[in-house]
Amino acid sequence: MLKHKHFFLLPGLIILIAIIIFPLLFTIRVSFSSWDVVKPGLDWLGGKNYERMIADLRFWEALSRLSLMAAGSVLIQYVIGFSLALLVWRDVILKRYFRVLFLVPMMTTPVIMTVIWRTILHESLGPANDIVRLFGLIVEPYISSIVVTVSASLISLALGTLAAYGLSRFSYRAGFVKNSDIKFFFISQRIMPPIVLAIPFFLMLQFLGLLDTIVGLILVYIALLLPIATWIMVDFFNNIPREIDEMAQIDGCNPIGAFFRVILPNSLPGIVVGGIFCLIFGWNDFFFAFILTFTKTQLLPVAVVALNSSVTPWWSLSASALVSVAPLVIIAFIVERYLSSGNLAGAIR
Amino acid sequence: MSLLMQNMNIQVDGVAHLNDVSLEFKPGRLYTILGRTLAGKTTLLRTIAGLQSPQKGTLTLHGQNYLNLPVWKRRVAMVYQQFINYPHLDVLANVAFPLRRAGVSPAEARQRAREILFKVGLANFENRRPSSLSGGQQQRVALARALVKRAEILLLDEPLVNLDYKLREQLRDEFQNIFTGQDDAIVIYTTTEPDEAIQLGHELIVMNEGAVIQQGNPLGVFNAPATIRCAEIIYSPPMNIFNGVIQRGEIILSGGLKLPTPLALGQLPDGPYRFGLPAADITIGGDMAAEVELSEISGAHTILHLRGAIGSFIVYETGVCHYAMGSTVAVGIDPRHFFTFTVDGKLINPAAAATGQGR
Q1: What ipTM is given for this predicted complex?
Q2: How far is B75 from chain A (nearest CA, A)?
Q3: B66 near A CB under 8 A
Q4: String of DSSP letters for A249-265
């Protein structure tokens, strides 16, 4: 049994630890040092960096502003989201279209939304015709975005599905670490503010020589998407009766065979939902795409924002923003029916 | 040459599910395990299948250790009380699945699956998905999948419990026919229904709170339950138990009812005893008045909960009859139907007259 259950959990867990924990530890080490990017080596500074931070008034201001904003936005989002959810779940005519409509803001990078709003509020919207030039500017980021998002989503989904099945079906124990701790470890990656991870990621990619490359971004995006995929799939597998796994074993499958022959073919709805969430989060990330790339590689959200200069006409900005959300809207329309939980629950019975 | 279980102990979170169970199962025989829910029946089957591992005890098949064999290497088939089928496969593929895993060629697997489907009455449903079938049909698919393997051990965990009354009767009658062709298999069938246990099994095993409390020929067990506990489990509705004494050739039940001692009890010394009386052996129409507390109709039978001078008891009457709550009926009690137990619940003397229940 031992080797079978490890087949499921270990690949995802190891990759997540490698991508997140080691860079994070390195960052902690750096935080106690003075480090010049030009000159190699670390000089030990002890707690001086922290002293400086605590003494800095701006740090406290930023912290209080962040807390206030987080608290406020969570509250407002919760109230509005809950009311909308109630509305959508009732049988409204054109419910399907409303639901997609509500998904659009979720799928739209906040930065892009700001740009759109600025566009809408601007008074000098005028017709212009350099559409060709515009698409010339965003076509490469568009392809990069697709490559990064799709590959990171596929890898995360594969590793996450395996890890989730392991966490759902087997008990793992290593010292005091149990299943619930491992599950929390996966989820905790999404609880940390992105900035905490930004520096470790930056240092790691620099160390690997992958800054400003597609491969580097895929690596980072796996760390972002793997927890989401695992989280969604654990929940999904918990709803598949264990008796089906047991029956497959009685019928002659070992645990790995039972997973691939019986569980996986019945998991399509869960995988679709997990995939959608990976695509949405991956496609919309602005922060890491901005920090970890410079000139060679550029992803769509960064490219769209880069267009946002006084020279670019507003209408073309709007067009580029809309074009950038188009793929997700199309996907949302195609898989919308999987997003209502009723279909998920009815998948197996 | 048998499946031998010795001193099997299983605890889950400190609760004993199996408590020192030792049993022997022989090929070609059908064992029914009768017990209420949580008696440990399912745990016993899961242990044999390899889905649960014991804290203590041994399990051998033909003298070989069976416990260290993983589930997928044991030649076991199982039918759950829930209808468990593979949702993504059609009926034919569901039934052929275990054969394909065992390395049987696709053509032969399909052929054998068709034969079994015909036997369980699903010949025309080959291409349907299990989810589009009725409960009874889904359970037939599960049954076919268990039978098709010709496993050494066939485990059936209350396979009829989730079916409606009519289907249950029908499938139960078919079992006799369905199990032929599994001649060298050990068949173990668990149930909470005494009637089912008596109708199907060659051998009856009664379980209570994780322990085997009686084992033997079904009719033998039925006519001589070793303890009051056992009598309560194997009779449905449970056997009525009255406290009383034997005094100078008379049975005096608590409440003061005096009855003549039947011949068989003549040798018993005077003193306190407990008397068991199957609910079917109390007749309506007699010299004892009792008040109706509850009247329920089950199938073609009426179950009356009565209260009289001797306490509360249950009467099982053939046919559908209506009684108003609170009304009075006269009942007759014949001491020749009494099972006599010691005060701590051990059988001393079975009933002199055959019981009318469960036949």
Answers
A1: 0.85
A2: 8
A3: no
A4: HHTT--HHHHIIIIIGG
Token pair recorded at residue A267: 């998991």
pLDDT single digits (tens) A61-73: 777 776 777 677 6
- C-alpha–C-alpha distance, residues A167 and B269, integer Å: 65
The pLDDT of residue B107? 95
Residue with tokens 């052996």: B281
Handedness of CA B170, B171, B176, B178 (dihedral sign): positive
Tokens for A321? 């923003």
pLDDT in tens, B218-277: 988 988 999 999 998 998 888 999 999 988 888 888 888 888 887 777 778 888 999 999
| Type of residue numbered A174 | A
A162 and A8 Cβ atoms separated by less than 8 Å: yes
Q: DSSP letter at A295?
A: S
- Tell me which of A27-41, A177-191, A294-308, B262-276 is least confident: A27-41
String of b and e for B189-210 (b: at least 16 CB within 10 Å)?
bbbbbbebbbbbbebbbbbbeb
CA distance A341 to A338: 7
Q: Which of B355, B352, B259 is nearest to B310 (CA)?
A: B259
**Chain B hits for A265, Cβ within 8 Å:** 88
The angle, 0 to 180 degrees and rounded to 10, between the axes of the packed helices A194-208 and A214-238 is 130
What letter represents residue B344's amino acid? D
Q: Where are the beta strands (DSSP E) in chain A?
A: 33-34, 43-44, 173-174, 177-178
On chain B, the residues whose CB falls within 8 A of the CB of A246 are 49, 51, 71
> Which residues 131-170 of B are in CB contact (within 8 Å) with A?
131, 145, 149
* Cβ pair A253:B72 closer than 8 A: yes
Torsion A259-A267-A228-A154 (CA) sign: positive
Crossing angle (nearest 10°) for helices A268-284 and A314-335: 170
- Asked if the C-beta of B51 comes within 8 angstroms of chain A's C-beta atoms, the answer is yes
